[in-house]
Fold this sequence. Notes:
The chain is an alpha/beta fold. Helix content is 37%, strand content 18%. Helix 3 (83-104) packs parallel to helix 4.
Amino acid sequence: MSKYLVTGGAGYVGAVVAAHLIGAGHEVTVLDDLSTGFRAGVPEGAAFVEGRVQDADRHLDPSYDGVLHFAASSQVGESVTDPEKYWTNNVGGSLALLSAMRRHGVRRLVFSSTAATYGEPVSTPITETDPTAPTSPYGATKLAVDHMLTGEARAHGLAAASLRYFNVAGAHGALGERHDPESHLIPLVLQVALGRRESIAVYGDDYPTPDGTCVRDYIHVADLAEAHLLALDAVTPGEHLVCNLGNGSGFSVREVIETVRKVTGHPVPETTAPRRAGDPAVLVASAAAAHERLGWRPSRTDLTRIVEDAWDFARGAAK
């Protein structure tokens, strides 16, 4: 059994990863300021500390075997209007965490990174060697932390992995998406099925894709969590490993909407809106590095399974 600190472990992905760690027999402490997370989302069996990642030095000690770092501000639109918040929270918070880890001799870190580090893709599927040119302060701050980890590994022997997520979806039992405001497609379409919004907007139907709508790579949150546990075992002192996490294939906006109709049995009215600036036609990951370096093989790749799990959670959360 190992002991891990999970920053941001009251949020969607952090909570599911914490639950998987506990299920594997590890001791887990969740550190979260609950600014976007939920106390009820902290999985049973985890110790909970309400606090900021900037104050991690107070909560770490040499008994910890590693840190899984999810604490961050993550709204792309907000990062454009309030970039200072993102540099302070995402970069400043990560720097404070790394300093605390060095001080206490905690030498393993798995970082929650993002496909937003790539910006507009130059090829499909996207690989880790493709250019990184973020189009938002959110993506830029995550990329800055990736660079920070490379330097920390080289200079101080940190064993680190950055996992770049594509579109995380689905649910793990009672742990699912409940962002406020919600910006992800699947939970938004489910809100229409639940009668909580009138329709779903399709932003552009004239893209060079089979049905004219954007194509995205959706990954089940439980598959994502399993990759984090594998990464803890795969990291090497002095190396910063970067891996994309995705299914390697994509689903269009219209495919998602139709799958929600099929799974829920509810009509989902849709409206067509103009394209959003900066929305690429296709965003799909190559996860070959994760397959090779982590031994990771996602098993919940079917869109119907992803939507079914998200629907079960959404109905429970709506009660």
